[in-house]
Every structure is written in C-alpha cells, then in structure tokens.
Amino acid sequence: MQTTSIRHSTSIIQTTRLSIVQSAHIAQRMFTLRLDLVESIHGMKYMPKAECPNCSKKLKPLEILKGFNDDPYDFDTTCPGCKHRFSARLVANFRNGGTAELPFYCAIQTLNGLHDKDTLSYEDLKKSYGALFHSAVVHFGSITAAFGRLSIDYPMNERIAWKDKVFGFLGLIPDGVIANVVCVSKYAIQKLRRDLGIKGFSHRKLLED
Ligand SMILES: [Zn+2]
Q1: What is the Å distance from ligand 1's center to 63 Cα?
Q2: CA gap 168, 184 in Å, rounded
Q3: Percentages helix, strand, coil for the chain, rounded to the nearest 5?
Q4: pTM listed for this prediction
Q5: Which class for 114: exposed (0-12), middle (13-18), buried (19 or more C-beta within 10 A)?
Q6: How far is the CA of 108 from the centre of ligand 1 (A)?
Q7: DSSP 3-state assignment of 80?
Q8: Ligand 1 mean position, distance from CA 77 (Å)
Q9: Taking the domains of the chain in order of start, what are their residue ranges?
Q10: 131-183: per-residue pLDDT in tens?
Q11: Rounded to the nearest whole angstrom, what is the distance from the C-alpha of residue 50 to the centroid of ligand 1?
C-alpha cells in the first residue's frame, strides 16, 4: 500500500515538473494560436505591445499579461526586469489595411468596463470604446464570449462562416476556446472535431506540434 502511494506521488511530481518546464511554451503557443484563429474569424490581427520606459525591455505578450495586477482600476503592467510599472498597448491591424494602437486592458479591467455596456450595438461599442472592445476580443475570443463571462446574453454581430476556418485549430486548442472565438457552443466544435476523427486537445499534442 505504502509503495503504491509513493509511486503514485512520484508520478504526480514528474507530471508537475514536466508541466512547469514546458508550461511557458504551451501558454505561448496557445496564445498565438488563439490570436491566429481570431484573425481568421474576425479579420483583426492583434499584438499586445509594451516596452519598459525605465530599462527599455520589450515585453513578450505573456509577460504583459502576467504583469497586470488583475485590479479593475490599475491599468499598468509590470516589467519583469526592473519591476517598473507602466501601461501596455494593443496594436490592431484590420483586414482593410488600417492599423490602430490602443490601450491594452487586462481581462478583469475589460469585464469591469463592459458590464454596463450590453445595450450598445456591436458597431457602437467598437467605435466608442475601442480599447475595451479589442481587449475583450483578445482575452475572450469575441465580444459575445466576453459578455457571456458576465452572464449577459449579447447578440452576435454577424453570421460567421466558421467551419472551414477552424480545421487547422481543432484539437490544437481546447474546443471551448474555439467556440468562444466563433460564437457557437463547445459541443458544436466537439462534434465537428469528432466527425473528422481529430483527437481532443492535450498539452502533449501542443508540445509536439
Ligand atoms: Zn524595466
């Protein structure tokens, strides 16, 4: 009995160690793939951007996310080098060739800013609250998914032709993440993936990719 339990905990430690070593790579791949899918579906290519004004370090997107305090009223991220706090930006490239650079909010700030704006149309939200709008798409995959996190049923802005655009992402990122980007249920993605004989998401699969 003792031996079994020791063996069991050793295997947990090994699994944990593996995921600690590789988790940064997995998180980075997930983030990149999700933004690639967002681009393919919504036609907006996003890149969070932050260069520390104190030590000139250029932060990677995940460093920017990690540096937020998850406080709805604190808009700064933290430089992992010198710990200086400053605001991050979000660069959005649009399908029509236009580019915008906006403040980039963390997920908590985004939800806090959106919670009383569900009466606004998709276009009004985008026009009047651009930073909120685009931060929401980056963090949650779509405006509908962001409002969903607030338990608000926000109508979809458009009928999205998504089926042929998600093939390359099936099984590489979780079904629920794809579902949020294309505004359908997780089960619709799961069904399509299974019909195509593609195995579900696993960290291992992402590492092999
Ligand atoms: Zn710095």
Answers
A1: 12
A2: 17
A3: 55, 15, 35
A4: 0.85
A5: buried
A6: 23
A7: coil
A8: 11
A9: 22-208
A10: 999 999 999 999 999 999 999 999 876 677 888 899 999 999 999 999 999 99
A11: 10
